[in-house]
Specification:
- The structure is a homodimer of 466-residue chains.
- In chain A, 35% of the residues lie in helices and 24% in strands.
- By secondary structure, the first copy, chain A, is α/β, with parallel strands linked by helices.
- The first copy, chain A, folds into two domains: 281 residues, 3-Layer(aba) Sandwich (Aminopeptidase); 145 residues, Glucose Oxidase, domain 1 (3-Layer(bba) Sandwich).
- In chain A, the strands form two sheets. An eight-stranded mixed β-sheet of chain A has the order 1-10-12-11-13-16-14-15.
Chain lengths: 466, 466
């Protein structure tokens, strides 16, 4: 239709009809999904909250004053939104301190390298560890080498990014694999498909049967260069200095608030995220965006004229990054309750295509499904057909079988169906666990749309017929 | 054709024919463009040279020992390639030293910020400069503010990247604009369309009529945040410490080598690049790639069975980044010679679509053309139609009117037609003048193809009929 024709057509609608037709009818109430979507997309509240969390509170590692600030701030937000039963449920969390860190290439050319200790790593002795670098591309390549080539070296795992799940194994377990063969420290190429000389931190774990050696991430650039130097017959020699150390435990908390169900208050839909972050950047996408979205779901559902049938419980978990103490403590403390679903947003803030579904009856292992689980998944997908038209206006009505979220994994392991917001992660892995995880990378329009999708799914799960 | 049919068909070719048909004809000599392209695409020499320059010599600011190493190395390379008249032509260059640098946000939240002093900046007094940050989006916005709002502040130019030429004005001239109004230091958002918390250095200049205040680049992330804080009514307060200083001058050199013309040796085609770099990263794309490509052009043309009609002169200029002393010294020392064309590669190593043409009769200002220049440009483009089929196999046969290169600009200003390799710069500006300008970003296949295109154009310009 041309513009003129469209204007003429709309003008027709303004022509008054006979008196009886002009009598104003009482408008039908706005349907809940329309209210949720309309308010999510137009309100400033969520964006201003995210800005506050990022710019004023900043990154917030377990045990830091910033995380305590964030916990207080989140409770204030829930109280402002008139949620019920707002509280901080105590959780004891591990405290790891980064300290001073420095990596110097001594030869063939002296230069300082960007470095980030891996979370959980022990420090180096005073003065650092100095050794030749042995670069390997895989665990298999390490296994194939004789001890004599590994002992006394710093092993660098230069493994290009394929998927996060595959590549992160080297960050998590590389140090012990190297230590078992006699290495004095481990370096890992940062887990990312893209780099602008950007080191990525993240958690690592020590195996019981291996010496605890210092472990740190180097940039893709540095890993590539040390690999080339080795191939050219001039392996790099470096000195690694890490002041990182375990500093015991500290009190922390999961922040919880609810919209009580109007008919089945004992049936609970959990909406989660994690409030802690690594000690770099702003924890904007990991997982500030997820937490502000979870708060927004609570706020929007609390504003509906009628509460949904079941209880919606917003849970901002603590300590996802280096311990998962929050998720475990929640599952333990609330083991006797009936969790009908658990939703989490923890894969950034890219456009959500829908939700990943994680349904299982046995075991906590991510990605392993029994035949019984498969059947349960098929049943759930069939039921979810009813919510797809409500999510379609947000282009977020896709469902696929995948991991849903770390904090809700302990609930999922006991049979609660898990839903993960299924973000486009193209822009996520490059900033994940880095100084570049900052607010400027988040699209405010897309961010609000994702929150709207979470709110609609949450409402539907809480409202649907028993 | 199915595989079996293809094999059968090729087998037919092996059936011996009558004796007279089997007599081996003398093959026609390989045409020069075919030899240049074939060798450029298949040889390891250029890539190994680039690897050596990046990994073993590294970045090489004017006056640094690394630049001296690179100058010696380049002469060795030219001698290995049997170029004629290999020499280092002395040039005196300015020496600027970065020193210690640190930027600390003191409020509203204390944190360290990544920072790089701009080349040429004076340092701060001992202990640094501490002040509130005033963020502006443009020179116009600064001009519109009263002095009282600027005096005593650190002005931050938070100008999003549009084109390099437009945005770099703030890096070059922001400090003096701010100082003239009473600012005590200047910060500039790094000149880049993409950031992973990546500061970009680059040159700045002081105007004669303004106090010389310290100037540094911050990341896109930090600039955005300080802008948001100001808009939220909580302007950042920072302390800037720069140890940068002018350290006088040092001897340096342009590296020159030639393939003498067989008929018109006094007519010269210059093939240029700059061997110096900023003091970050490896100077891989700025301009290591350009220099190794220029060397490759010399090597390949020297290997032709017959030298081209005119002289091809490879010139690796010094001091492009912070002075242009090399380009100026060359133009002055060789003012009496006949330069028929000048080619430069200095916009990275992305796929070249062809060449930018810079033809003018008057003035050194980039991008300003008179009617007379326009006519000369049209004539040149018409002549260049003949070389397009030779460049077409490399998909590098496009010509457009644009800036050709800084080092050859003094030659272009005296009437020599200038040719710039017209690279795709999508991946260039994000790493330009940063720690991320490293070898791993360069595609070896594309790199060789670009060098092949330079070699073909150079050969054609040196060979074409008088």
């Amino acid at each position: 239709m041309r513009v003129e024709a469209a204007l003429a057509a709309s003008a027709l609608l303004l022509i008054p009809g006979p008196a009886h037709a002009r009598k104003k009818a009482t408008p039908a109430p706005v349907a809940a999904p329309a209210q949720l979507i309309g308010e999510a997309l137009t309100s400033e509240v969520s964006w201003l909250r995210l800005e506050h969390l990022c710019d004023r509170i900043g990154h917030r590692l377990s045990g830091s004053p910033a995380l305590d600030q964030a916990i207080a701030w989140a409770q204030d937000a829930m109280n402002q939104d008139a949620l019920a039963n707002v509280r901080a449920e105590p959780v004891t969390v591990p405290v790891w301190v980064r300290g001073h860190e420095r990596l110097t290439q001594l030869s063939p050319r002296e230069q300082e390298l960007d470095v980030l200790a891996l979370g959980g790593s022990v420090g180096t002795p005073e003065g650092g560890v100095e050794a030749d670098v042995l670069v390997v591309s895989s665990f298999d390549e390490l296994d194939a080498l004789p001890d004599a080539e590994i002992a006394g070296r710093i092993v660098l795992f230069d493994v290009p990014f394929t998927t996060y799940g595959a590549t992160v194994q080297y960050r998590g377990h590389g140090a012990s694999a190297a230590a078992r063969r006699g290495a004095v420290a481990a370096l890992v190429r940062s887990v990312t498909p893209v780099s602008l000389d950007t080191p990525h931190t993240g958690n690592m774990e020590y195996d019981e049967d291996a010496p605890r050696i210092p472990a740190a991430a180097v940039t893709v650039e540095a890993a590539s260069r040390m690999h080339r130097l080795q191939e050219a017959g001039a392996p790099a020699r470096v000195r690694l200095e890490l002041g990182s150390h375990d500093a015991g435990t500290a009190p922390s908390a999961n922040v919880v608030g609810e919209v009580m169900g109007r008919e089945l208050p004992d049936e609970i839909v959990v909406v989660g995220c994690h409030l802690d972050s690594w000690d770099v950047g702003q924890g904007a996408q990991d997982d500030g965006g997820g937490c502000v979205s979870a708060l927004e779901v609570g706020r929007l559902i609390a504003r509906l004229p009628q509460a949904p049938r079941r209880t919606v419980r917003i849970v901002l978990f603590t300590n996802e990054e280096n311990g998962l103490a929050g998720g475990r403590a929640y599952a333990q403390a609330h083991a006797g309750e009936r969790h009908v679903a658990a939703i989490e947003s923890d894969t950034g803030t890219g456009a959500a295509a829908g939700f990943s579904l994680d349904v299982r009856r046995t075991g906590p292992e991510a990605g392993r499904y029994s035949d019984q689980d498969e059947a349960a998944y098929e049943v759930l997908v069939e039921q979810l057909q009813a919510v797809r038209p409500l999510l379609a206006p947000l282009q977020a009505d896709g469902f696929r079988q995948s991991y849903a979220g770390s904090d809700i994994a302990p609930l999922i392991a006991t049979g609660t169906p898990g839903f993960g917001v299924d973000h486009d992660t193209t822009g996520y892995w490059p900033i994940h666990h880095t100084e570049a995880d900052t607010l400027d990378k988040i699209d405010p329009i897309v961010f609000r749309r994702n929150a709207a999708a979470m709110a609609v799914l949450t409402w539907w799960l809480a409202e649907r017929a028993p």
